[in-house]
Design a protein that fits this description.
The chain is an alpha/beta fold. 49% of the residues lie in helices and 13% in strands. The chain folds into 2 domains: 244 residues, no CATH class; 265 residues, von Willebrand factor, type A domain (Rossmann fold). Helix 2 crosses helix 4, helix 14 crosses helix 16 and helix 15 packs parallel to helix 16.
């Protein structure tokens, strides 16, 4: 459901009523509703969202929920399923609580649900998550649609949750539902392609250890701002996102993950990127030129942000400064904890590359019928049929090398953070010591920005390699745009041999932010699945056509290997052990230089 640029009623009194309603429910009069918590499709929907926004603030501790979400994403829970369960269950909790206190809310909710359902022409009932959303809404309106047994069981378990229970107990119930039904569904579909409901068994969660996530340090395993934004929009996305196909009269009829915001919110997003990731090192005109060149087709409306990060560029975000400083210290601690081994790895890689470069750059002297006379063979003239008494020196014509190392810095790499930083440091230090210009960058997506964080530039000193320890994983990843933007500077280098090494999990995955004013994004596919894979593969092939040698180092799951093959062809290496990253790069460079 789209967000219109202006309040649909253009009614100051009504907007005041919406804010006042949220304040009255929550009891918090110092907080305004965020524009993402408003809906502009009808008055009843607007009032309902205001009620839920207020109830959300009053009844739920979102810091606990955020910790829970981050801990589960670390454990490789399916994010879409997890968010759907949280949306359904926690909205059910706050709805029940607010209706118990204020019975009149039920009528407003039912009117709002009717208005929401009018906008959809088709519900995809083959999708269990859509079926759950649809069934949940209808049952809340006291309607009882015919559904399959599996959906009925899940809804029954959701409805059985005591809305007055402790939040930790409610989150435990979310875990039980996820592990009982969806872990089974995922495994069944992978193994057999079908679901046998009879095989579902209830799981037993050890409650003594369940709440351990509360004592974990709260890292930004996903981009914290993105997670908070999704959490704050739970009441919206429960009804709107992924419910089905919009009616043909609605311009935004795609069910894909393209998020629409109003113009004011879009501007806030653009203003905030430097606040979270540091000031850009390119001028505004240079950035606009890059965006005009690269942000086309599937990247239409996206932005690019080149930065040296919050520690080495202007940034007044105290939290982010502290967070990145702490993450750098953690990475350095892990490096120093085994410093002798890591230094040996640097020296081994440096000596290996040096040896190859020396061998390949050595001048070969060959005997010839012409050239410079070889004094100790001059006696052969007139005395022997062997007339090769001259020599020529043949020089290596392979040229010089320049290397870009591009690190996937999205949330999916959170489990590998310090290992990625250490291995990239080893490679960059060894390359710098042997005199090969190299640049190391990390890429991630912050809403509609592809952020490229530069840890070291081509001609920086060895000391600058320590900046790599600023690496941390957060947010999404738009691989195709990152590769495209990285290749620009690489192509401008004068070295004959240009190499791009990309470390990733082979799963491009991003959302898009659009505003209604442009209407440029309507109906576009989200950047995931085959859309993201095909686009990334296209950019890899374009880079190769321009003379760049591209190697993909794959750190994801075996089930995603096919995607990696599509993207990188034969030039990719799969490793389950990220600590072998530097060895893999060494082998690849040897192969490239020798051949």
């Amino acid at each position: 459901m789209s967000r219109n640029t202006n309040w649909i009623y253009n009614d100051y009194e009504f907007e005041n009523r919406v804010n006042n309603l949220a304040w009255t429910i929550s009891g918090m009069y110092d907080e305004d509703l965020d524009s993402s918590e408003k809906d502009y499709s009808s008055k009843d929907v607007s009032l309902y969202f205001a009620i839920i926004a207020g109830a959300r603030r009053k009844y739920l501790d979102w810091n606990i929920i955020k910790r829970y979400i981050m801990s589960r994403i670390k454990k490789s829970y399916n994010k879409d399923i997890l968010y759907t369960l949280i949306e359904l269950i926690l909205n059910s909790v706050v709805e029940d609580k607010v209706i118990n206190e204020r019975p009149g809310v039920e009528e407003i909710r039912n009117k709002a649900y009717k208005d929401v359902l009018k906008n959809y022409s088709k519900i995809h009932q083959e999708d269990i998550l859509q079926t759950l959303r649809y069934t949940f809404i209808l049952q809340s309106m006291d309607k009882h649609p015919a559904v399959d047994g599996l959906t009925r069981r899940i809804i029954k378990d959701i409805k059985s949750i005591d809305c007055n229970d402790d939040l930790i107990n409610i989150l435990k119930k979310i875990d039980e539902i996820y592990l009982t039904y969806f872990e089974f569904i995922i495994n069944s579909q992978i193994e057999t392609g079908k679901i046998n409901e009879k095989d579902i068994k209830n799981v037993d969660i050890d409650f003594d250890t369940f709440s351990d996530f509360m004592y974990e340090e709260l890292y930004m395993d996903e981009d914290a701002e993105t997670i908070e934004s999704e959490i704050n929009n739970i009441s919206n996305s429960m009804i709107v996102e992924n419910l089905g196909d919009m009616d043909s009269t609605n311009l935004e009829k795609s069910k894909n993950r393209v998020i629409y915001v109003d113009e004011e919110m879009a501007q806030k997003i653009y203003d905030k990127v430097e606040y979270y990731y540091g000031k850009a090192f390119l001028s505004e005109s240079e950035i606009r030129k890059l965006e005009t060149k690269h942000c086309r087709n599937v990247h239409e409306g996206c932005r690019i942000h080149f930065t040296d990060g919050v520690l080495r560029s202007e940034c007044n975000n105290v939290f982010q400064l502290k967070y990145v400083t702490r993450q750098k210290e953690n990475n350095l601690y892990k490096y120093r904890d085994n410093i002798k081994l890591h230094k040996r790895s640097i020296n081994k890689l440096k000596e290996s590359i040096s040896r190859i470069l020396i061998e390949e750059s050595a001048t070969d002297r060959i005997l010839s019928d012409g050239g410079t006379i070889c004094a100790n063979r001059a006696w052969r003239i007139g005395r022997s049929n062997n007339t090769k008494v001259f020599y020529k020196d043949i020089k290596n014509e392979k040229g010089k090398y320049v290397i870009d190392i591009l690190l996937d810095a999205s949330g999916s790499q959170s489990r590998n953070q310090f290992n990625v930083a250490i291995q990239a440091y080893i490679i960059a230090t060894a390359l710098t010591l042997v005199g090969i210009p190299n640049r190391v960058m990390g890429y991630l997506s912050f809403l509609d920005y592809t952020v490229l964080k530069r840890y070291r530039d081509y001609n920086d000193s060895t000391k600058s390699c320590e900046n790599i320890f600023e690496y941390f994983a957060a947010g999404n990843n738009r691989d195709g745009l990152a590769i495209k933007a990285t290749c620009d500077a690489l192509l401008e280098r004068e070295e004959e041999n240009k190499i791009l090494i990309v470390l990733s999990d082979g799963k491009p995955n991003d959302v898009k932010i659009g505003n209604d004013r442009s209407r440029s994004l309507r109906g576009e596919s989200s950047y995931k699945g085959i859309v993201g894979i095909k686009d990334t593969a296209l950019e890899v092939r374009k880079a190769r056509k321009q003379g760049i040698l591209v190697l993909g180092v794959f750190t994801g799951k075996e089930k995603d290997l096919e995607a990696e093959k599509i993207i990188y062809g034969k030039d990719f290496i799969y490793t389950k052990d990220i600590e072998r990253f530097s060895d893999i790069v060494a082998m690849y460079l040897k192969k490239i230089i020798k051949n």
